Amino acid sequence: MGSDSSGVVEFLPKQFWHLDPVYRSYAKLYIADILQLKHYSTDEGAFAYQNHPINRVDVIGWLVRVEERPSMFYYGVDDGTGVINCCCWKSKNNGEPRSMLNGEGTSLSDIVLSKVYKYDTQESCLELGDVIHVRGRLKCYRNRLEVSASYYRKIDDPCCRIEIHRMEELPNIYENVYDLPFVLPSHVMQELKVQNEEERTGLTREAQLIDRLQNYLQNHLADRHTGIKNFHLNELETLDDVMAIASCQCLEYKNEGGSGSAPIKQIRNIIKQAVLRLEREGTVYRSGMIHDMYEVVRTNLPSRLDKTILQILRSDCHLSRYEGGCHYMHVMDRLHEYSDFQNVSVDTVRMALLRLEEHSDVISATSKHFIPVN
């Protein structure tokens, strides 16, 4: 059976149980080990073997107790290490065809089906000494674990090959899976470490500041009353609301700031990352004339970029090689021929094409090719 680990294992919060493959499968454990399982320390939705959360098991054993009740069979299954009770539910209406239950079954097919179902029902009540394979969820009934079966069947194996294979299989599974404590992936551990550090210090993570600044800029630039058509990255540092977000105490830069002020590296990086996200969304695009200059795209008004793309499609789609539509990469290459659009990214082009399609100015011939409407 499974070896007892003398080391201290770390139990996982329920939100990380799905990362353990043992939790998502039917655990093949010795019955003696199943009976010794205790509720998981962080949540009672599962039972713990080492720090593996387990709520479903797969057992094979001999029947040593058989009880038939109105809605189920109650079997005692023994695999040689212990006996566990398995609750195996009968099929609804005992498998009788609905027409037979209503007294309407007079056809030959209904009579034959009724005989078959009665035969299956008689066979489903297994006898002492039969070998049974059971899969199901663990539940605690009267302070004792038992299996509520979702699947069970009798095993006809006079040579006991299946039972022998199971007994040969289990030590290997224990050694390589169950007896090894589950360790969270490194990226999850890093995320947890950052969260704990954030709670301990009260500082905000850089990603959260970027999200906040992105949302603010998106609303600020979309407001037609601001009248902003373009901006330079350095100009954003003159806006009080932008600086209020970008200069918050940041967890990643906690050792770089001096006298309680945020480092300029943090402020500029947060602003840059927020603007890059807006560029990927198609809200802004980089101008080709001045370094770090961005043009604002307004969804309610056609921009210079939209007009230029439409002009390219109208001129190139008349050519025989593009009569099926222009690929968006071709559109980007053509845009780069213009000095104003030398730095336009592929994400910006795709968003502009989708925007033109929403306004019924272009039609998508495929997911990558576009044709002007007129």
UniProtKB/TrEMBL annotation:
Domain Stn1 C-terminal intervals: 213-371
GO molecular function, one term: DNA binding
Keywords: Chromosome, DNA-binding, Nucleus, Telomere
Record-given protein name: CST complex subunit STN1
Gene name for this UniProt entry: LOC110989060
Domain OB, chain residue ranges per copy: 57-154
Taxonomic source organism: Acanthaster planci
PANTHER family (UniProt xref): CST COMPLEX SUBUNIT STN1, REPLICATION PROTEIN A-RELATED
GO CC terms: chromosome, telomeric region; nucleus
A Pfam family hit: STN1_2
